[in-house]
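Take a record.
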Amino acid sequence: MKFSSSFKVGVLSLLALTIFFCTVLWVKGRAFSSADRIEVQFKDVNGIRPGSAVQMMGLRVGQVEEVIPVVDGETSYVKLKFVITNPNVTIPRASMLSIQQSGLIGEQFLEITPPKLKSVYLSDNTHPLEKNTKVQIKLDDKYYDVGIIRRTQILSRAVIPKNLQDGINTNYAYKYDYMINLPGLILPEFMVGQSVYHNGEYKLRIKPLDDSPIPYPHQTSPYTVVEPMRIADFLDLQYQAAESLTETNKKINELLNESMVADLRQSVENIKVLTAKASSTLGKAELLIDESRKDLNALMGMMNDVSKSFNDLSRNVNNIISDPQFKPTMLQTAKSLSKLADELTPIIGAVDAQKFASDLNVTVSNIAEISNSINRMSKDEKLKNNLIQTIDNVNRALCNISTTLEVVNNTKDKANIKQVVQDASVTVSNLRKFSEKLNKRFLLFRLLF
């Protein structure tokens, strides 16, 4: 079958128009795909143009269709539209979109990086968390659910990174691999976490190692846009770092001037001399302790003897206090003094009250001192018996005075009352002198003890 010349010319013309149309679309970055067009906003696209490749994990999956600048003062941005031509590729939520360059002077392309798994380690004494448990983090002083746990493991503490082992206080730990699904949230490389119970369920709460605050990413795009860094910006950062380093060196040089260096050297020399003297002093002290060891041992022996003597004295005092003859005597004396005070009350006005009370107080005080002396002289049984007999005589004298006063109080002969009271006052005065003499007998013993 033969075709006419006009038919051939028509076919060639149609083919040329098709090639021309496809070439125009390719130049403008248009793709023959029914997939949705995705629009993102960059503040700087770093020279990318329509038709540039869109890659995911190093594979070309689409191309850029439009790059439209939007100038609006401080909020100016660049609108970038691209399409995924590979029907088997779906961009996950919170994927990172960045503009990369193939080589130093190569073509610009749009790189899509799916969310990566991050890991935290918790001690195995915490509440275990299951797969698909929500991940929580504090953003702008409020906690938000920003991801989920994808995998859980139990590992030995030895295989955990060295900088994270201090936070694990058990031999084994839970390893939780989680994924962030909040667009715009970029976390530090290393995080720490804990298992918390919040709003009726357990969650994994994470935070940076230094607990630095993280702002909430306010954006409408379902993806995380990473702005490119131009060489000029990189050089500017390097210049700022060099300037800061220069200023730091200047301040260090100002601090470490010649005078300061000389002082430091002198301080080092002084420390060396002081260390040498301290070593010599410690050696002498050690030698002195060795030479005085016998004296120290003797002193310790003397202290032990003194302690033993005090223990013996305590036992003797206890024996006196528990003596069946001494205790009733002292109790009877106290009762007699009490009765004497009762009997003196009605007639105390008949004599010099101040002198009478003074004599009585001195007598009681002397009796108390005599009692103390007895306690300190407990080893001499004969002397103790004599002292007990003396105190018993004093007690009887006080009883006689009390009886006499009682008779005076009950008598009806008013003429003899004054004389009897005066006699009682004289008796008390004589009793005071007697007790003072008796008390002086124990002066030597009181000084010894």
Q: What stands out?
A: The longest helix spans residues 258-291. The chain has three domains: 5-113, 118-222, 323-448.
